[in-house]
Specification:
The protein is of the alpha+beta class. It has five domains: 129 residues, Rossmann fold, CATH 3.40.50; 168 residues, Topoisomerase I, domain 2, CATH 1.10.460.10; 121 residues, Topoisomerase I, domain 3, CATH 2.70.20; 118 residues, Topoisomerase I, domain 4; 81 residues, no CATH class. The chain is built from 20 helices and 23 strands. It has a six-stranded mixed β-sheet with strand order 2-3-4-1-7-8, with helices on both faces. A six-stranded antiparallel β-barrel has the order 9-10-13-12-11-14. Strands 17-18-19-20 form a four-stranded antiparallel β-sheet. Strand 17 and strand 18 form a beta hairpin. Helix 1 packs across helix 5, helix 6 runs parallel beside helix 19 and helix 10 crosses helix 13. The protein starts with a strand and ends in a 14-residue tail after the last strand. The model has no long low-confidence stretch (mean pLDDT 92). It binds one DNA strand through strand 5, helix 4 and helix 6.
DNA sequence: GCAAGGTC
């Protein structure tokens, strides 16, 4: 008599199998590509098999993608709906086979909406209608003790209300996203005769709207002039920059008066304010915080960081990275991780310092995750040579982990007030008095000490280099991939696992371009059209409403059917109106698509003439593609660079750190994208950093 | 070649 235990993913299956086996040594087996485990617990045989996330998905019954509105959706195995999901069939087949000789069924996927829903679909379709008799393991961490106790206290059934809410989420997202995307795509295709994907959705829509709103703010911004006073002070033979008490002076007259009054005057130190403060260690990484830190330190996009972290996780160097937790439960065994890290010469001293402490208590953050702890190093050391990006990210995670256990840093700030002919200037210094956690995080600290020489009140000092400078107020900054991700997090749209991908989609659709995301005409038009016809889908309120409906469904106060019916009633007239306006919308979009396609061919500024742009061209003679300068058409620059002939070439959005030439992103089929400098003679070409 | 959500 066997019991089938269904898990969300292979790593979880493994942990669960180990925890539940009486001896802690489950049999490791394989059915084709699918790993599974046989554990023995109290005389019972447990077959523990993982899924790989969702194996089933919703798809419109009408497969012709030119048709809309479509409101009939069905759940199908993912490989039937998505290309590139071939392995899903093997997983479903394996689970079906294993379930055939199982008597009892236990759902052990993550205890959240998606976990419950994906488990339900597998029990229902792959296991042959076992959803009603399956029991449920409820756990929030994959620790041995919690897994055992959740097995001992099995819930009698899977959580149907939560599943109904999950199904609702899938269907609503599909109904809105697919219909509106089809409407826009079809309109453009009919007008131009060319296919180009124009997509939107519950998360894409509002995210693009953030960018468009910012773009408009920037366009409407009127810069105002202001003046500032620059000056230095000489103390003990050293020059220090000082700040005038008012950072911004609104009139030139006032600025000039101050400058006149202070130039060639001596200053008198009238006040010295010394402040000491403690700074707590940084909290361990959740995915979003890691993505932001990696962007700020290394300029890695959130997507790249997610990809690299995924690889580190698959090689067992770090814990599960798709987490929103900033907490490190004791059960991960801080000491054993540090004892393992100590084997790396770089961490020997640091890990040793922590191991000498009596108590190891991490400074945890506020954010939590029901399914996973914060990201931490497993203590394993790399078995192969890591790429530069893998090494940097691993090092960052290791040091952040250690820093979280460090002592608070003690810092001192000094503010010296200098009176110059009645005007006050500030000289600011800062220094670290006690490093504490900074010792561990040193390579990633960006603030330098400014150490002031001994000064005392009443001292007379020399003012140097006093000048006035005119500047203009600046418009709000454009989003970059990192700040956009933060905005999404703050607004609660998307998930930790999808946000980076959705931002990437906005780039590939040609809605935005560049590191400081500039919105294209196409992006503006899409938002404009949706704003006129269907403002709900570009509003964050849409997600709020969905969440409310899901909550009500879970409480039993709402039915899935009613929520869907309301959505259909809302969307039907919208889609009909879109269809009626197809011509006009098609024209508007098609023109913008052309411009967007053109923009996507631009790789960066021409490093030779400095005025033109490098653009992807095709040789008339050979048909080969290459990079040429747009100034060529004005007969002022004829520089050209060869391009790889295979794969998709896009702008990397940055210049080479070695030679300053623009870089391309080359995506070969089935491979990870490469970022390459366009300069064939780049000095960096000798060395290797492919990622 | 459509969404967003899991996961590899």
């Amino acid at each position: 008599m066997k019991t089938l235990l269904l898990c969300e993913k292979p790593s979880a299956a493994r942990r669960i199998a180990m925890a539940l086996d009486d001896e802690g040594h489950p049999l490791e087996k394989k059915l084709g590509i699918v790993p599974y485990y046989e554990s023995r617990r109290n005389g019972k045989i447990l077959i523990i098999v993982p899924a790989i996330g969702h194996l089933y998905t919703v798809t419109p019954k009408i497969r012709n993608r030119d048709v809309y509105p479509v409101f009939d959706f069905e759940w199908v195995p993912r490989h039937e709906a998505e290309r590139g999901a071939k392995e899903i069939k093997k997983w479903i087949d394996a689970i079906s086979k294993l379930s055939a000789d199982a008597e009892d069924f236990i759902l052990a996927t993550d205890y959240d909406i998606e976990g419950a829903t994906l488990g339900y679909m597998i029990l229902k379709y792959a296991c042959g209608g076992k959803e009603d008799r399956a029991k449920r393991m409820k756990f929030s961490t994959l620790t041995t003790s919690e897994l055992r106790s959740s097995y001992d206290k099995l819930l009698d059934s899977i959580e149907f209300p939560m599943i109904e809410a999950g199904i609702c989420r899938h269907l609503l997202d599909a109904i809105y996203g697919i219909n509106l995307s089809r409407a826009l795509t079809v309109a453009a295709k009919k007008w131009s005769g060319r296919y180009s994907t124009i997509s939107t959705g519950r998360v894409q829509g509002p995210t693009l709207k953030f960018l468009v709103d910012r773009e408009k703010e920037i366009n409407c911004f009127v810069p105002l002039p202001f003046w500032r006073i620059n000056a230095k002070v000489e103390i003990a033979g050293h020059l220090f920059t000082i700040e005038f008490e008012k950072k911004v002076i609104k009139s030139q007259k006032e600025a000039t008066e101050i400058a006149e009054a202070c130039r060639d005057k001596k200053g008198k130190i009238v006040n010295i304010e010394v402040r000491e403060f403690r700074q707590k260690p940084p909290v361990p990484f959740d995915l979003g915080t890691l993505q932001r830190e990696a962007y700020s330190l290394f300029k890695y996009t959130p997507r790249r960081t997610a990809d690299v972290a995924e690889r580190l996780y698959l090689e067992a160097l770090i814990s599960y990275p798709r987490t929103s937790s900033q907490k490190l439960p004791k059960s991960i065994n801080y000491r054993s991780i540090l004892e393992s890290l100590i084997r790396d010469s770089r961490y020997k001293k640091l890990a040793g310092m922590l191991l000498d402490k009596k108590d190891l208590v991490p400074n945890e953050g506020r954010k939590d995750d029901p399914a996973h702890p914060a990201i931490y190093p497993t203590g394993n050391l790399p078995e192969r040579k890591l790429s530069v990006s893998e090494m940097r990210l691993w090092d960052l995670i290791v040091r952040r982990f250690m820093a979280a256990f460090g002592e608070p840093a003690v810092k001192q700030s000094v503010k010296v007030s200098i009176d110059v002919n009645g005007y006050i200037f500030y000289l600011k210094g800062r220094r670290v008095l006690k490093e504490g956690w900074i010792t561990f995080y040193r390579p990633f600290m960006r603030v330098e000490d400014i150490i002031l020489p001994p000064i005392k009140e009443g001292q007379i000092v020399e003012i140097k280099d006093l000048s006035i400078e005119m500047d203009f107020t600046k418009p709000p900054a454009r989003y970059n991939p990192s700040s956009l991700l933060k905005r999404m997090e703050d607004e609660g749209i998307g998930t930790k696992a999808t946000r980076a991908e959705i931002i990437d989609t906005l780039y590939t659709r040609g809605y935005i371009s560049g590191d400081r995301a500039v919105v294209s005409e196409l992006g503006l038009d899409v938002i404009d059209i949706l704003d006129r016809h269907c403002p709900e889908v570009i509003s964050v309120e849409f997600t709020r409403e969905l969440e409310e409906s899901m909550e009500k469904i879970q409480e039993g106060n709402e039915k899935l059917e009613n929520v869907l019916e309301r959505a259909v009633n809302k969307l039907t007239p919208v889609l009909l109106r879109l269809k009626k306006s197809e011509k006009q919308i098609g024209e508007e979009l098609s023109l913008a698509i052309r411009e967007s396609r053109m923009n996507q061919r631009i790789i960066g500024d021409c490093p030779v003439c400095g005025t033109g742009k490098l653009i992807i061209l095709r040789s008339r003679k050979t048909g080969k593609r290459f990079l040429g300068c747009t100034s060529f058409f004005k007969h002022s620059c004829n520089v050209s660079f060869p391009l790889p002939q295979k794969g998709k070439v896009t702008a990397a959005g940055k210049v080479c750190s070695e030679c300053g030439f623009p870089m391309i992103r080359l995506k070969l089929k089935g491979k990870r994208p490469l970022v390459i400098c366009v300069n064939p003679n780049c000095p960096g070409k000798e060395r290797k950093d492919s990622r």
